[in-house]
Design brief:
Strands 11, 12, 15, 16, 17, 18, 19, 20 and 21 form a nine-stranded parallel sheet that branches. The protein starts with about 40 loop residues before the first strand and ends with a strand. It has about 1350 residues and is α/β, with parallel strands linked by helices. It is about 45% helix and about 15% strand.
């Protein structure tokens, strides 16, 4: 909180005095323990509201009396803790006109009564009868105005007191539907209740139910469904709901005889009878997938048209007429002609009329102003009133102002093109899309069918297949693709569109949100014709798309008006029963389309155990037939469900375990700080996805390693086979072993250094000799695996060991002690050899480019630079200079480069090119000269480039590790060469220096051509085009070639400088690596005392841009740190030794797998029984193999959860034992040959497909998976094994791929497999059968066994066999 300050007072002479400006701190008042109670005014009843008496409520007891007349009544509430005397009841004090006090002991809760008193919708009066205090409660006014939620709460309380109406709906909810069995039970209850309620489907099929245009014969269950649909469309809801009260309301009779209506759930009260409004007729057709809902809808369309004779105009021999119109625009050629005339001589009547009107208003206007306002009127369609024609401008959707074929809106007078709006005179009066919004809806007899994009073509094909007669069908693809005038929809019987169209055209219906523009629109927005007519019937296929009322698709579906509304879906309940409200909201079934009514009347009672209201409602509006109920009618064969449980191969098992370890650690880290009792449903979706991501990675690893890359195997290489996976695992293990070995040697060198500081020279020598022993062990492969030892660590060991041996000779020296210096020098030479060879190769490349540049310069005909001097003069003499400047500007604009010329004169351009050219030559010469100072060349047997030895010290003091950072040091030759590189780069390319604080960083810009280079290229081009002297443009081309070669040379020179710098750094690293741990010098200083200047200096130092190297003095230790570092390094040494031993065992294990499975080598004999391992054996993680008999004995004699290897004594867990079969990867020897080497699951899929192909030449297979990445890997395997397949995902080419799939099924002899991702499977699960006819596939395959069995039962086809591969 801020502190209040006193305003300064004026001193004598009206001068402000700073001494009088005294801050005042306000003292905080100590709050009393209990504040005095607040009196509330009681609003009594008026004459107008006495007839709204609700009743009386007993509030307490009292032996006082209430006065009959009073002016003001106030009430005071005192709780027990506020009373001085001991009292077990709260007290209510009524104060009348400040003279009379009435004290009552309360019998109800004080806070509740206080809310009633303060409510603005209630009035109170008190009375006392027989020592009992009552409160008469009145409503102030009906109907209630806008009421606060607190007042509604008070109303609920009062009605509960007086009328005993239960207002609390919070009941025990048993939990929502989640399992398929619970959903099936609900459907069965609906069927049973429906059979008791209706009897119309028990009738025999009549002739009226057989339409001549319907080509197919309906099955009995389809006839029943059609009868129910006709019953729902013919029912009169106005009579059915006549006089019925809204289910949310409860009728209450007041003591005055007045009847009011109360909502117990919200507290609202009304005196108007809440009658149920008539609802739209329709329902939910929810037959199970594959039972022919499409045919049932088409039969309903034929049997109940708007006009009874509409389908009887011809016989059924004609085929349906499918129309798919395309949007037509004005001819672009005519538009160009119009614009050309406007840009040419102003001779047309329209232009002359505009100019004449402008001159009448102001004759003094210049010709430029007149031309500008004329262009405004013609091209932009707006301007001042005197400059525009009298008639309104053309505002068409195409944006063209071409005045042919226009039509005028009858309402606003707007002119538009007939062709663009799809209008002709036969369609009646013309209204623009904006005026259509205010016109009454046009009633038509067409049915609108809305489907997913993938099912649109299927619906059209079903209409062609099942319906005859001249029915006109329109495929509406949206106003952007086609133009339909609203009255034109009268000419169609069925209109088919998609949810995508509804979603995209929602914005076209929101005309009230259009922003008012300053000027009139040039382009008129399009309109949606679907919302401007009243359809006879609207049918949503896959209606679960609108399960959420707030979706854009749901909003658009509600805006479409229709006489009958139908929702067709095979899964009305997808997740839980609350999904049904979205369908009820779309169907506009009053009163349950209101969310509060649905929740309080149906949903909450159902979830609390009272199923009757929900079942009664759903039995009326939902029709469902399941395959189990009509099994005898659909004549499908028996389904066979097979599960294949596969076992990982040894390689996959190893990889999966590593992934499992990482995923477990990641999962535990994410849930570490979360409450274990928290339900998953209450976790945010993004957070839940993040928590479950490790589990998803494990599921990926079960199918193929490529789908879970980036965790254990962070490699960019595609692992196409299990052999590739094994090689990647081996390389990963080798890399981990090298890192572990490096840490071990680092610990040994550190321990040796610490022991030298402690004066223990013999122990230090022992540690150094351990390092040399490790080098000999892993370099010769004695440990079974060759691992390289870090050369810098080896140099450190040899150098310091030789130094210690010279100062403290051991009693028992070794034979190699005298050769340590020589061996150390050899290791140093091997370390430097790599850098020297790379620099030598780069040196040769640079020399080649230098020679190329010299050769090109020798080809110049004229003097160097003469070509652009003479060329500019020639251009100027021949009047091409303006064209030259224009082309320069265009070239700079295309390259996105700013043209920075102080003057566009010929001499200024010549001077700019000359200075740039000379700058390039000068910078290049200086750069090459600087580079020559950095190296020496030795050409004895081959070229060897060696950095000069003197450079190491100068580079060290300059930038590598300067000793005194405060003192400015002269730049070393390496840094000077780098500066020359940047200067040369700035001249060659479009680059510049950074700001002062970032000078050492790279230049700003890019390697685009500079402005001067573009000028030279343009000059050379125009000299050649205009046929100047050949010497000029040929020298120009040579100069450009020289420039391009210089750019390539610069890249190689920079690479050469980088390698020289790395060579110098390597020399410095060799010097650094010889350092060992040293004691830090302790400076004498007074601890805790720092001057002010030192503090400021430390703060300023922290604000600098210079990076501080914290590892610079890490080799310096204090005396008290020695023991800690000794124990720490010992512990790290032991940990890494154990880890290295385990990694070496793993390496042996992986190498053994490679030899046995992919090289055909048998392992060594069993170490226990010495039997040869030929057919079957076991292998441990340490890499040692045992026969099955011996491993069984080891397992039986072990009581713990692990066994110990008989050779290396490493402990192994039971689950880490792998069992190998000779020559076996995934399949047995008698199985079909598979091309390639894939995961166990993919090879099992290919094997099943090949077996099906042998049984049936053209099997039909449907293959499901949860992830697109898995499908992609499976497709690669299928292609390699010559099994043609079609990978279908969420793409726009879905329909084309489906058709391609169907055609090739007939034309090819290979298996045709169809892939769907999980999203498509779940979203389009009922369209799988719709898109492919029932005889087009027979064998669904599910890759992940976790996929619900409900999804398997979505498809019933001929001779079907389901297979789940787990």
């Amino acid at each position: 909180m801020g502190r209040r300050k006193n305003a300064p007072r004026r001193s004598e002479g009206d001068i402000w005095s700073a001494h009088n400006y005294i801050p005042i701190v306000k003292k905080h008042r100590t709050l009393r323990k209990h504040a005095p109670p607040h009196k509330l005014k009681v609003v009594g009843p008026t004459e107008e509201c006495k007839h709204l008496l609700l009743g009386k409520v007993m509030v307490g007891t009292s032996n006082n009396t209430v006065p009959t007349t009073f002016q003001v009544c106030r009430i005071l509430f005192k709780t027990r803790c506020e009373e001085n005397e001991a009292n077990d009841q709260d007290t209510i004090v009524l104060e009348y006109d400040e003279n009379t006090l009435v004290v009552m002991k309360s019998l109800i809760e004080m806070e509740v009564l206080k809310d009633v008193v303060t409510s603005k919708v209630l009035s109170l009066s008190f009375c006392i009868e027989d020592d009992k205090a009552f409160a008469y409660v009145f409503l102030r006014k009906l109907p209630l105005a806008s009421v606060h939620h607190k007042a509604l709460k008070s109303l609920k309380t009062v009605f509960k007191w007086i009328f005993n109406i239960e207002t609390d709906i919070s009941k025990d909810i048993k939990g929502d539907l989640h399992g398929s069995s619970e959903i099936s039970t609900l459907y069965n209850k609906l069927v049973q209740l429906r059979s008791e309620k209706y009897e119309f489907w028990q009738q025999t099929k009549s002739d009226s139910e057989i339409h001549p245009f319907l080509k197919v014969s309906l099955r009995p269950y389809q006839v029943e469904a059609v009868r129910w649909m006709l019953h729902r469309e013919n029912i009169d809801f106005s009579k059915l709901h006549s006089g019925k009260i809204h289910p949310l309301y409860t009728a209450v009779t007041l003591p005055s005889g007045l009847q009011v209506y109360f909502v117990p759930f919200s507290g609202y009260v009304s005196n108007t009878y809440p009658q149920i409004e008539p609802c739209i007729r329709g329902g939910i057709l929810a037959d199970e997938m594959g039972l022919g809902k499409t045919v049932e809808v088409l039969a309903c369309i034929l049997l109940h048209p708007k006009d009874e004779h509409v389908f009887l105009q011809d016989n059924g021999e004609m085929k349906p007429i499918i129309i798919s119109a395309k949007r037509k625009k004005m001819n672009s050629d005519r538009e160009e002609e119009t614009y050309t005339q406007a840009e040419g001589p102003q001779t047309t009547k329209k232009i002359k009329e505009i100019q004449r009107n402008i001159m009448k208003v102001n004759p003094k206007k210049t010709a430029t102003k007149i031309a500008l306002e004329t262009w405004y009127a013609l091209e932009l369609g707006f301007g001042k009133n005197y400059g525009l024609p009298k008639e309104p401008p053309i505002q068409c959707v195409c944006g063209s102002i071409f005045d042919e074929g226009i039509v005028k809106c009858e309402s606003c007078g707007k002119k538009q093109h007939k062709l663009c709006l799809g209008y002709n005179k036969k369609l009646g009066e013309y209204f623009c899309s904006q005026c259509w919004m205010s016109q009454p809806l046009i009633e038509i007899g067409a049915t609108l069918i809305v489907t997913p994009l993938s099912l649109r073509k299927q619906w059209i094909s079903e209409i062609r297949r099942h319906i005859g007669g001249g029915i006109k069908v329109l495929r509406y693809d949206g106003c952007n693709s086609m133009v339909i005038y609203p009255t034109d929809l009268k000419n169609y019987d069925i209109v088919v569109t998609t949810y995508n169209v509804l979603q995209s055209e929602l914005r076209l219906t929101e005309q009230s949100n259009i922003v008012n523009l300053r000027r009139e629109r040039k382009y008129s927005p399009l309109g949606c014709p679907l919302t401007r007519v009243k359809w006879w019937r609207i049918c949503l296929d896959e209606a679960q798309t609108v399960d959420a009322p707030k979706k854009m698709v749901s909003e658009m579906a509600r805006k479409i008006c229709a006489e009958y509304r139908w929702a067709v879906t095979g899964t009305p309940i997808n997740k839980n029963i609350s999904d049904l409200h979205g369908l009820v909201d779309y169907l506009q079934i009053t009163p349950y389309d209101d969310l509060e009514t649905w929740k309080n009347i149906l949903y909450v009672p159902y979830m609390s155990g009272d199923e009757k209201p929900m079942l009664d409602f759903l039995s009326d509006v939902l029709w469902r037939s399941s395959k189990a109920d009509v099994y005898d009618q659909i004549n499908i064969p028996k389904q066979t469900f097979k599960q294949h449980f596969l076992e990982f191969s040894a390689v996959e098992k190893f990889f999966y375990k590593r992934e499992h370890e990482l995923s477990c650690n990641d999962f535990l880290r994410k849930v570490r700080n979360r409450d274990p009792s928290l339900l998953l449903e209450r976790i945010e979706k993004t957070t839940l996805n993040s928590i479950l991501a490790p589990l998803l990675s494990l599921r990926h690893a079960c199918t193929h390693p490529n789908t879970s890359r980036g965790r254990y195997l962070a490699t960019k290489k595609q692992l196409t086979s299990m052999q590739d996976l094994l090689e990647a695992l081996i390389q990963k293990n080798i890399s981990d072993s090298e890192e572990c070995l490096r840490l071990i040697i680092s610990s040994l060198n550190g321990l040796a250094g610490i022991h030298l500081l402690q004066g223990k020279h013999r122990e230090a020598i022992g540690y150094y000799r351990d390092v040399l022993q490790l080098r000999a062990t892993f370099s010769d492969g004695r440990a079974g695996t060759k691992l390289p030892v870090d050369k810098l660590q080896l140099v450190h060991t040899m150098h310091n060991l030789a130094e210690v041996l010279e100062q403290h000779p051991p009693k028992q020296p070794t034979l190699r002690d005298e050769l340590l210096r020589k061996d150390c020098i050899e290791v140093e030479h091997k370390y430097m050899e790599k850098f020297i060879n790379e620099a030598s190769e780069a040196y040769r490349t640079c020399k080649d480019y230098v020679s190329k540049i010299e050769d090109l310069e020798n080809k110049l005909i004229l003097k160097y630079g003469q070509w652009y001097s003479d060329g500019l003069d020639w251009i100027l003499i021949n009047d091409h200079f303006n064209e030259f400047l224009t082309k320069i500007q265009v070239a700079c604009n295309n390259a996105n480069i700013k043209l920075n010329l102080t003057s566009t004169s010929e001499r200024n351009i010549m001077r700019t090119i000359y200075e740039w050219n000379e700058g390039i030559v000068s910078c290049r010469n200086k750069l090459l000269e600087s580079l020559n100072r950095l190296y020496d060349v030795s050409e004895e047997d081959r070229i060897r480039v060696l950095a000069k030895g003197s450079l190491v010290n100068s580079a060290m003091n300059c930038h590598l590790r300067p000793q005194n950072k405060q003192q400015k040091v002269k730049k070393c030759p390496v840094c000077l060469a780098n500066i020359r590189l940047k200067q040369y780069e700035g001249k060659l390319f479009n680059m510049e220096k950074r700001k002062k604080n970032f000078e050492d960083m790279s230049l700003m810009g890019s390697w685009k051509p500079s402005m001067e280079e573009l000028i030279c290229k343009t000059l050379c081009s125009i000299l050649k085009i205009k046929h100047s002297s050949p010497e000029l443009y040929k020298d120009g081309e040579t100069h450009m070639n020289v420039l391009e070669t210089m750019k390539k040379e610069f890249k190689e020179v920079r690479h050469f400088w980088t390698l020289l710098d790395q060579q110098i750094c390597a020399e410095d690293e060799l010097d650094i690596c010889k350092l060992r741990l040293q004691l830090k010098e302790v400076e004498d200083s007074d601890e805790g005392i720092h001057s002010k200047n030192e503090t400021h200096a430390r703060i300023l130092k922290s604000l600098t841009y210079t990076m501080e190297n914290k590892n610079e003095n890490m080799h310096l230790l204090t005396v008290h740190e020695l023991d800690y570092q000794n124990s720490y390094l010992n512990k790290e040494l032991e940990i890494n030794k154990v880890l290295l031993e385990r990694l070496l065992g793993t390496q042996n294990y992986l190498e053994t797998l490679r030899k046995q499975q992919y090289e055909g080598q048998n392992p060594d004999p069993c170490p226990i029984c010495k039997n040869v391992l030929e057919n079957h054996w076991s292998i441990l993680l340490c890499g040692h193999s045992f026969c099955l008999e011996c491993i069984q004995v080891l397992l039986e004699n072990t009581q713990k959860d692990h066994i110990q290897c008989s050779i290396c004594r490493n402990k192994q867990k039971y689950q880490d034992i792998s069992y190998i079969k000779a020559g076996h990867t995934v399949m047995d020897g008698d199985c079909l040959n598979i091309k390639g080497n894939y995961s166990t699951k993919i090879e099992a899929v290919i094997k099943l497909l090949m077996e099906l192909k042998e049984e049936n030449p053209v099997p039909k297979v449907l293959l499901f998976s949860s992830w697109h990445s898995v499908l992609k890997n499976i497709k690669e395997a299928l292609d390699k094994n010559e099994i043609t397949s079609e990978l279908i995902s969420a793409s726009s080419h879905f329909e084309m791929k489906i058709e391609n799939f169907k055609v090739q099924l007939i034309q090819t002899d290979f298996t045709r497999s169809w892939f769907l991702s999980k999203m498509l499977c779940l979203l389009w699960k009922d369209k799988v059968v719709n898109d492919l006819s029932k005889k087009e596939f027979m064998h669904p395959r599910i890759i992940e066994g976790i996929l619900q069995k409900q999804n398997v039962n979505l498809i019933y086809v001929t001779d079907m066999c389901y297979t789940a591969i787990c």
